[in-house]
Amino acid sequence: MGESRQELLTWLNQLLSLNLTKVEQCGTGAPLCQVYDSIFLDVPMTRVKFNVNSEYMYIQNFKVLQNTFAKHKIDHPVPVESLVKCKMQDNLEFLQFTKRFWDQNFPGIEYDPVARRKASGAPTGGGVGGGASASLRTSTSSKPASTPAARRPITSNSAAARAPRAGSAAGGSVAQTAALKQENDQLKETVEGLERERDFYFNKLRDIELLMQEVVENNPALEQEENGLVPRCQAILYSTEEGFEIPEAEEGGVVAGDAVAEEETF
After folding, report:
1. CB 15 within 8 A of CB 111
2. Could you report the per-residue pLDDT of 142-153, keeping only the tens digit for each?
Protein backbone atom coordinates (compact mmCIF):
# COMPACT_ATOMS: atom_id res chain seq x y z
CA MET A 1 0.00 0.00 0.00
CA GLY A 2 1.37 3.41 -0.97
CA GLU A 3 1.88 6.45 1.20
CA SER A 4 -1.06 8.63 2.14
CA ARG A 5 -1.69 12.00 0.56
CA GLN A 6 -0.40 13.84 3.62
CA GLU A 7 2.78 11.77 3.78
CA LEU A 8 3.45 12.40 0.11
CA LEU A 9 2.84 16.15 0.43
CA THR A 10 5.14 16.37 3.45
CA TRP A 11 7.90 14.54 1.57
CA LEU A 12 7.40 16.63 -1.57
CA ASN A 13 7.41 19.97 0.28
CA GLN A 14 10.54 19.04 2.24
CA LEU A 15 12.38 17.82 -0.85
CA LEU A 16 11.50 20.79 -3.07
CA SER A 17 11.06 23.57 -0.47
CA LEU A 18 7.51 24.17 -1.65
CA ASN A 19 4.22 24.63 0.15
CA LEU A 20 1.82 22.39 -1.75
CA THR A 21 -1.47 21.71 0.00
CA LYS A 22 -3.10 19.25 -2.40
CA VAL A 23 -1.90 16.26 -4.41
CA GLU A 24 -3.88 17.69 -7.32
CA GLN A 25 -1.31 20.51 -7.65
CA CYS A 26 1.08 17.95 -9.12
CA GLY A 27 -1.16 18.09 -12.21
CA THR A 28 0.85 21.09 -13.40
CA GLY A 29 3.76 18.71 -13.98
CA ALA A 30 6.30 21.11 -12.49
CA PRO A 31 6.82 19.45 -9.06
CA LEU A 32 7.12 16.05 -10.71
CA CYS A 33 9.78 17.33 -13.10
CA GLN A 34 11.83 18.59 -10.19
CA VAL A 35 11.55 15.33 -8.25
CA TYR A 36 13.22 13.57 -11.17
CA ASP A 37 15.72 16.40 -11.43
CA SER A 38 16.72 15.65 -7.82
CA ILE A 39 17.60 12.13 -9.01
CA PHE A 40 19.26 12.78 -12.38
CA LEU A 41 20.22 16.48 -12.14
CA ASP A 42 19.72 16.87 -15.90
CA VAL A 43 16.07 17.94 -16.24
CA PRO A 44 16.04 21.30 -18.12
CA MET A 45 14.43 23.26 -15.30
CA THR A 46 14.53 26.48 -17.35
CA ARG A 47 11.77 24.92 -19.48
CA VAL A 48 9.67 23.91 -16.47
CA LYS A 49 7.09 26.53 -15.55
CA PHE A 50 5.69 26.62 -12.02
CA ASN A 51 3.58 29.80 -12.19
CA VAL A 52 1.13 28.61 -14.85
CA ASN A 53 -2.62 28.00 -14.79
CA SER A 54 -3.58 26.50 -18.14
CA GLU A 55 -3.69 22.91 -19.36
CA TYR A 56 -1.60 23.85 -22.39
CA MET A 57 1.30 24.95 -20.17
CA TYR A 58 0.84 21.88 -17.95
CA ILE A 59 1.27 19.74 -21.07
CA GLN A 60 4.52 21.54 -21.90
CA ASN A 61 5.84 20.61 -18.45
CA PHE A 62 4.82 17.00 -18.95
CA LYS A 63 6.62 16.93 -22.30
CA VAL A 64 9.80 17.73 -20.36
CA LEU A 65 8.97 14.88 -17.98
CA GLN A 66 8.28 12.46 -20.85
CA ASN A 67 11.63 13.35 -22.42
CA THR A 68 13.31 12.59 -19.09
CA PHE A 69 11.56 9.22 -18.90
CA ALA A 70 12.69 8.40 -22.44
CA LYS A 71 16.26 9.55 -21.82
CA HIS A 72 16.65 7.41 -18.70
CA LYS A 73 14.56 4.52 -20.03
CA ILE A 74 11.94 4.67 -17.27
CA ASP A 75 9.40 2.08 -18.34
CA HIS A 76 6.26 3.63 -16.91
CA PRO A 77 3.45 5.47 -18.74
CA VAL A 78 2.88 9.17 -18.10
CA PRO A 79 -0.91 9.62 -18.45
CA VAL A 80 -0.71 13.29 -19.39
CA GLU A 81 -4.36 13.70 -20.40
CA SER A 82 -5.51 12.44 -17.00
CA LEU A 83 -2.91 14.23 -14.89
CA VAL A 84 -3.46 17.70 -16.37
CA LYS A 85 -7.12 17.52 -15.31
CA CYS A 86 -5.73 17.84 -11.75
CA LYS A 87 -7.93 15.05 -10.41
CA MET A 88 -6.89 13.66 -7.04
CA GLN A 89 -6.84 9.91 -7.76
CA ASP A 90 -4.82 10.10 -10.98
CA ASN A 91 -2.22 12.39 -9.46
CA LEU A 92 -2.07 10.39 -6.23
CA GLU A 93 -1.29 7.16 -8.08
CA PHE A 94 1.41 8.78 -10.21
CA LEU A 95 2.93 10.53 -7.19
CA GLN A 96 3.03 7.19 -5.32
CA PHE A 97 4.95 5.67 -8.22
CA THR A 98 7.28 8.68 -8.26
CA LYS A 99 7.96 8.33 -4.54
CA ARG A 100 8.80 4.62 -4.93
CA PHE A 101 11.10 5.41 -7.85
CA TRP A 102 12.77 8.18 -5.84
CA ASP A 103 13.31 5.89 -2.85
CA GLN A 104 15.05 3.38 -5.11
CA ASN A 105 17.14 5.80 -7.19
CA PHE A 106 17.86 9.00 -5.25
CA PRO A 107 21.68 9.23 -5.05
CA GLY A 108 21.65 10.80 -1.59
CA ILE A 109 23.34 14.02 -2.70
CA GLU A 110 22.83 17.52 -1.33
CA TYR A 111 20.08 18.91 -3.58
CA ASP A 112 19.29 22.65 -3.71
CA PRO A 113 15.75 22.89 -5.18
CA VAL A 114 15.58 26.69 -4.98
CA ALA A 115 18.75 27.23 -6.99
CA ARG A 116 17.72 24.63 -9.58
CA ARG A 117 14.37 26.25 -10.34
CA LYS A 118 15.32 29.91 -9.94
CA ALA A 119 15.86 30.36 -13.69
CA SER A 120 12.37 29.00 -14.45
CA GLY A 121 10.58 31.88 -12.70
CA ALA A 122 9.26 29.48 -10.08
CA PRO A 123 8.52 30.35 -6.45
CA THR A 124 11.82 30.24 -4.57
CA GLY A 125 10.40 29.49 -1.13
CA GLY A 126 7.65 27.63 0.62
CA GLY A 127 5.22 30.55 0.65
CA VAL A 128 4.97 33.96 2.31
CA GLY A 129 2.47 32.97 4.98
CA GLY A 130 1.48 35.63 7.45
CA GLY A 131 4.91 37.18 7.81
CA ALA A 132 4.23 40.27 5.71
CA SER A 133 0.93 41.04 7.41
CA ALA A 134 2.44 40.57 10.84
CA SER A 135 5.26 42.96 9.99
CA LEU A 136 2.77 45.55 8.81
CA ARG A 137 0.69 45.23 11.97
CA THR A 138 3.80 45.51 14.15
CA SER A 139 5.01 48.66 12.44
CA THR A 140 1.56 50.20 12.69
CA SER A 141 0.98 49.37 16.35
CA SER A 142 4.48 50.54 17.37
CA LYS A 143 4.04 53.96 15.79
CA PRO A 144 3.93 56.58 18.63
CA ALA A 145 0.76 58.58 19.06
CA SER A 146 0.90 62.12 17.80
CA THR A 147 1.20 64.73 20.57
CA PRO A 148 1.33 68.52 20.49
CA ALA A 149 5.00 68.37 21.39
CA ALA A 150 5.69 66.08 18.47
CA ARG A 151 4.07 68.42 15.95
CA ARG A 152 6.76 70.80 14.81
CA PRO A 153 7.16 73.13 11.85
CA ILE A 154 8.34 71.47 8.64
CA THR A 155 12.10 71.76 8.26
CA SER A 156 14.63 70.65 5.70
CA ASN A 157 14.82 67.31 7.52
CA SER A 158 11.38 66.47 6.13
CA ALA A 159 12.88 66.24 2.65
CA ALA A 160 15.31 63.62 3.90
CA ALA A 161 12.44 61.76 5.55
CA ARG A 162 10.57 61.68 2.27
CA ALA A 163 13.54 60.30 0.35
CA PRO A 164 13.26 56.69 1.60
CA ARG A 165 9.57 56.68 0.71
CA ALA A 166 10.41 57.83 -2.80
CA GLY A 167 13.04 55.11 -3.06
CA SER A 168 10.56 52.56 -1.83
CA ALA A 169 8.04 53.64 -4.46
CA ALA A 170 10.71 53.40 -7.15
CA GLY A 171 11.63 49.92 -5.94
CA GLY A 172 8.00 48.86 -6.10
CA SER A 173 7.76 50.20 -9.64
CA VAL A 174 10.82 48.20 -10.73
CA ALA A 175 9.42 45.04 -9.17
CA GLN A 176 6.07 45.60 -10.87
CA THR A 177 7.79 46.15 -14.20
CA ALA A 178 9.78 42.94 -13.78
CA ALA A 179 6.61 41.00 -12.92
CA LEU A 180 4.81 42.40 -15.97
CA LYS A 181 7.77 41.55 -18.18
CA GLN A 182 7.78 37.97 -16.88
CA GLU A 183 4.05 37.67 -17.47
CA ASN A 184 4.46 39.09 -20.97
CA ASP A 185 7.25 36.59 -21.73
CA GLN A 186 5.03 33.73 -20.56
CA LEU A 187 2.14 34.92 -22.72
CA LYS A 188 4.48 35.29 -25.69
CA GLU A 189 5.74 31.76 -25.16
CA THR A 190 2.17 30.49 -24.95
CA VAL A 191 1.22 32.23 -28.21
CA GLU A 192 4.28 30.82 -29.98
CA GLY A 193 3.38 27.35 -28.77
CA LEU A 194 -0.20 27.71 -29.98
CA GLU A 195 1.01 28.92 -33.37
CA ARG A 196 3.35 25.94 -33.71
CA GLU A 197 0.52 23.60 -32.75
CA ARG A 198 -1.81 25.28 -35.27
CA ASP A 199 0.74 24.92 -38.08
CA PHE A 200 1.37 21.30 -37.11
CA TYR A 201 -2.29 20.29 -37.45
CA PHE A 202 -2.85 22.47 -40.52
CA ASN A 203 -0.01 20.71 -42.35
CA LYS A 204 -1.46 17.32 -41.43
CA LEU A 205 -4.88 18.32 -42.77
CA ARG A 206 -3.31 19.69 -45.93
CA ASP A 207 -1.45 16.40 -46.52
CA ILE A 208 -4.70 14.48 -46.07
CA GLU A 209 -6.46 16.81 -48.51
CA LEU A 210 -3.78 16.28 -51.16
CA LEU A 211 -3.94 12.53 -50.64
CA MET A 212 -7.74 12.57 -51.10
CA GLN A 213 -7.39 14.60 -54.28
CA GLU A 214 -4.88 12.10 -55.66
CA VAL A 215 -7.19 9.19 -54.85
CA VAL A 216 -10.14 10.89 -56.59
CA GLU A 217 -8.05 11.70 -59.67
CA ASN A 218 -7.05 8.04 -59.97
CA ASN A 219 -10.60 6.78 -59.39
CA PRO A 220 -13.29 9.50 -59.79
CA ALA A 221 -16.05 6.99 -59.00
CA LEU A 222 -14.98 6.95 -55.35
CA GLU A 223 -16.20 10.53 -54.94
CA GLN A 224 -19.71 9.51 -56.04
CA GLU A 225 -20.16 6.65 -53.60
CA GLU A 226 -22.90 7.40 -51.10
CA ASN A 227 -21.54 7.14 -47.55
CA GLY A 228 -18.18 6.18 -49.00
CA LEU A 229 -14.90 6.96 -47.25
CA VAL A 230 -13.89 9.71 -49.68
CA PRO A 231 -17.12 11.78 -49.44
CA ARG A 232 -17.16 11.42 -45.66
CA CYS A 233 -13.55 12.58 -45.35
CA GLN A 234 -14.24 15.52 -47.67
CA ALA A 235 -17.28 16.48 -45.59
CA ILE A 236 -15.08 16.65 -42.50
CA LEU A 237 -12.27 18.54 -44.24
CA TYR A 238 -14.52 21.20 -45.73
CA SER A 239 -17.09 21.59 -42.94
CA THR A 240 -17.40 24.99 -41.25
CA GLU A 241 -18.88 26.33 -38.05
CA GLU A 242 -21.42 29.06 -37.53
CA GLY A 243 -19.80 32.46 -37.88
CA PHE A 244 -16.91 31.11 -39.97
CA GLU A 245 -16.84 31.58 -43.71
CA ILE A 246 -14.22 30.43 -46.20
CA PRO A 247 -12.91 33.57 -47.95
CA GLU A 248 -13.76 33.68 -51.63
CA ALA A 249 -10.86 33.58 -54.05
CA GLU A 250 -10.02 36.92 -55.56
CA GLU A 251 -10.84 37.51 -59.19
CA GLY A 252 -8.07 35.92 -61.22
CA GLY A 253 -7.58 33.15 -58.62
CA VAL A 254 -5.29 32.72 -55.69
CA VAL A 255 -3.34 29.53 -55.27
CA ALA A 256 -3.60 27.73 -51.95
CA GLY A 257 0.02 28.41 -50.97
CA ASP A 258 -0.40 32.16 -51.53
CA ALA A 259 -3.59 32.15 -49.48
CA VAL A 260 -1.83 30.44 -46.59
CA ALA A 261 1.09 32.83 -46.84
CA GLU A 262 -1.24 35.82 -46.71
CA GLU A 263 -3.20 34.35 -43.80
CA GLU A 264 -0.03 33.81 -41.75
CA THR A 265 1.39 37.25 -42.41
CA PHE A 266 0.88 39.65 -39.52
Report:
1. yes
2. 344 444 444 444
